[in-house]
Backbone:
């Protein structure tokens, strides 16, 4: 009686992303982390709109004006679930602000990172023999519906694929330690 089947959970993360994206929900400390990552690159491109690094010289990380500026770029994304994946990608990207590297490149195209993550996800699904509706993509964004509906955490979570995509995207700018992607 207390067990939950896949059918009961289907759509759970898609609904959550749609809701979070529609109400512009971001994690606590998100804007301060964005400010820190902007100090290590020339800007973040989000669906064709650039949040320039010069913003960090004009505003402080805790300033409401900065948060509004970040939101003004994110609000150009019409699909709330896609907006939320972009927020998740930026969040993973902000972990790089804590490593000892002066620069992580020019303008970082966050939407490209999300698409690389989606491609990695699709490759893995195909390697497990997935076909048909599981591989269907959203016409507007090109993102797999099943990727939108995946939990953020876990071995097959969106954060795992976003992390791998960021490593691939920024490979030349990250310090080499001899670690391999698994």
Residues:
């Amino acid at each position: 009686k207390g067990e939950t089947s896949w059918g009961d959970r289907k759509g759970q993360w898609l609904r959550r992303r749609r809701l979070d994206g529609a109400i512009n929900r971001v994690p606590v400390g998100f804007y301060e982390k964005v400010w820190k990552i902007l100090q290590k690159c020339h800007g973040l491109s989000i669906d064709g709109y650039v949040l320039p690094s010069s913003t960090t010289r004009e505003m402080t990380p805790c300033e409401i004006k900065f948060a509004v500026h970040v939101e003004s770029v994110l609000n150009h994304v019409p699909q709330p679930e896609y907006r939320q994946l972009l927020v998740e990608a930026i969040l993973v990207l902000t972990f790089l602000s804590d490593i000892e590297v002066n620069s992580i490149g020019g303008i970082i195209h966050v939407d490209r990172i999300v698409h690389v993550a989606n491609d990695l996800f699709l490759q893995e699904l195909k390697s497990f023999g997935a076909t048909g509706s599981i591989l269907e993509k959203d016409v507007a964004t090109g993102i797999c519906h099943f990727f939108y509906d995946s939990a953020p955490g876990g071995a097959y979570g969106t954060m795992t694929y976003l992390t791998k995509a960021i490593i691939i995207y920024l490979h030349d700018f990250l310090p080499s330690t001899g670690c391999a992607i698994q």
